Here is the input.
Amino acid sequence: MCDSVKPDDKEAGDREDELRNAVDSMARAMAAMFFFLADEVIKAFGEEGKKATARGIRRFGLYRGAKIRMRAEAAGVAPTLDAFRKYYDLPLSAAWKVFQSDIPDGQITEIEYCPMAAEWNEIGAKEAAREYCAVDFAITEGFDSRLSFSRESSILQGDRCCRHVVTLCRQKNNSSPPK
Here is the structure.
């Protein structure tokens, strides 16, 4: 029987902790990389560097959203809100502490721990981080412009959690990140 090679619960738990730590480390490294890169661009080019960074983040978000949509469609799944959640491109449950709930025509996501926010808080990069977090608006739009994204609270502004609300609109998404 194969039971002799079946991992015990402790081994499975150890692997899960190892994965969680690896994803947390990767997300923190990407957060730090964004900060140091954006910081140098802004120092070198001032306001134009800040605008270029914002444009780059928007392009990155639109790209990610389109890729999420393509993954869903490649699996034969229509680009719905459920598909957006199912085919999302980051393993949120592996390092982020996330709670999701459905509302009529939408979903609410509360993020109580974000490894990127934790890193930005540690290195004093809250301002640059808020620029990066505008990516969420563009990811949603890139997936489906009929979806509207709003951020009701943010860990980076001292709130208990980041609270995101995504709803289905019948017209083109005109929301934009707060300045």
